[in-house]
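# step 3/5: fold
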Amino acid sequence: MVSSRPDPAQDLSAPVNIGCGALLPIRSTRFAAIFDYTHDALRGPERADNKMFAFNCIVLTTKEHWEFHGAAGRADIDARSMMVGSAGDGYSCRHYRGCEDGNLVVGLRDDAIDPDCRRLFLTQVVPAQALLVRLIGNLPHLLDDDSFDSAVFTLFDEASAISRRDSNIAAPKLRMQRAKRFIEMHAFESIGLSDVARELGLSPFTALRQFRSATGKTPYGYLLELRLARARELLERTEDSIASIAEKVAFKDLAHFSRFFKKCTGESPSLYRSSRQNGRRPSTGSVLRQAQDDNGLSC
């Protein structure tokens, strides 16, 4: 958790030095990780000052207790309370001599959420509510990375809401952040609205409505944006056939891909490639409204 500055690219699959010891990874994915931290009561430093959260984190203390110094002053952290930290915030900690405190630390990388997403936590200590404890306890046992990431986003969503409970400032919509990351990770596979909804634990209608409210576009519209951007990149930078590119961006039908691409850019894929190679700037069009009108809201 300690760093000179937050690093969005930090490797959460390796041990992380936090000044008074190291976080040892139990499991990590593209966006998140869970670590074990047990303070060495005999050889570990008793205090660590002027630290900074290198990533958004939640700490569940499973054994003994330790002292946290944050924006609101000193707090004793044990099984009844949890420390939550936003990337970039400063803090200090104290571990008691002869007291080997044990902790589970869940980290959400800074690039798991959009840059303009407001800071996740207002208060840095929250009650260890049963839901939060259960979510953390289940993390090491989830079968696949998507389930793990989904549970981590849910955990941070709940903890963020708790930390803002007594304020008038709404928590960031981390479920919709999770929806965007899920679509990005699977944009070139055959996914639909039901897959996104299942990932969020919502009905398809609610997932669609909340996503559009949070982002101004539907999940399908966002998916098409990603596919179009990738298709443009492949046309500009590779010599792959147009049929191969269509398949790589999850269009099984070449004619469908060509119609979609021309409707969005004003040019056929072959003309787009030619104009790029000749240095002419291609025209642009609206990917969302027209493509959704033609294809429906299947995602």
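# step 4/5: annotate
The CA atoms of residues 33 and 130 lie 21 Å apart.
# step 5/5: archive (pending)
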